[in-house]
Structure formats: C-alpha cells, structure tokens
Amino acid sequence: MPVTATPVVLNARALLLDMDGTLVNSDAVVERxxxxxxxxxxxxxxxxxxxxHGRQGHASMALLLPDRPHEENLADNARMLAExxxxxxxxxxxPGAAAFLAALRDLxxxxxxxxxxxLSTARMAAAGLPLPDLRITAESVGASKPDPEGFLKAAAxxxxxxxxxxxxxxxGAGIAAGRSAGMRVVGIGERAGQYGPDVVVPDLTGVRVxxxxxxxxRLTVG
Length: 222
Fold this sequence. Notes:
Distance between the termini: 14 Å
Number of strands: 11
Largest sheet: 6 strands, parallel
Strand content: 15-25%
Low-confidence stretches: none
Number of helices: 8
Strand order of the largest sheet: 6-5-2-7-8-9
C-alpha cells in the first residue's frame, strides 16, 4: 500500500498508540540486539528482522525456534529486555511525535506496546516524549500482538467502544492486532504499508489532531 497521497479524515473517540516505530525510532538498537541473537542461534539476520517487529520477544522466539521450550524463550526474553533497556544509543522520536502527543494531551489516548514498563519508560524518555497516562505494556497482557488483547484492554480502560478507536502502528503484528480488535489503523512508516492499514503516512508530521464539537477526535491524515 502506497503512502496516502490525498488527505483522509477519520473521526474517533480515542487513539491507541504503539511505541516502537510509531512514536519512537528504536530500529538501531533492535537491529543490533536481534541480529546478535540470530547469529548466536544460527539464524539468518534478515529473516529474523522480518519477524520481530511488534511482537514481544518470547513470541518472536517461538516463531523462529518452534521446537525450543517456552521457558528458555522467557529467560532469553528477560535478558534481551534488560539489554535493550540499557542501550538507548540511536533512540530518537519519530518525526512529529512530540507535537502529536501534545495535541492529544486532553484527549482520550493510550500507549499500547509490546515493551515492558522499564523499556517503554526508558525509550520514551530517550526520545524526549511524555508517557500517556494510560499505558498497556507487556506486563498488562497474557498474549502478544498480533493478539488484540492489548488494544481491547486499552479501549475498555478508556470506556470507548473498539469501533470508535483508531490505532497507530508500524508493524504487521500490530496492524493485525488492531484489525482483530475491530479498530481502524493508521500505518506509520514504510514498513506499515505492506500490511494493509486504512491509511499510511511516512511519519507523524502527516497527522493533524483536533477536538471535534461532540467531544470526539478529528484526524486529518496525509
């Protein structure tokens, strides 16, 4: 799917925001750590990178090493989360993220991320971005994206019907999760266009947020 050429208007009552690749560009550290892990396990780095975006680490490992015990994946995931939390080299905001979050300050929104609390807190801080009041992290759910649990929990916590929520995502797993939750999806970045979101923009500079007269949110995308 190409980047949206003509501006599209979407009306919503809440926005649900992924973090990595959507608000925060953490690709440099993700590439470093996951390519190293792939090499340690004899896996192709390029093929590994096609799997890991958007998912919790142990869920990616289960796909890449299907015969490995789940306990080993959990232990590896905990170690890698600690490594990622200690490595903020190259972590920056996605262009437009700070202004986008500022526009949402008094509007219903939530962070829905596969990162845990320490990693999401560290990356948002490294990118100079404020944390939304409502955050659904890895600790909040029993199933990783592409399962819709995280988005549905966020909508329920905000008291908003799923159909009135718009998801912002960059990954195939995240876009599938938003779709499964019955939500519309704005794709952010080149990666997102492969997975069929409703609209795609290169970054958040292509999104304008306004409060509508009925208390909802009017989005102009593109």
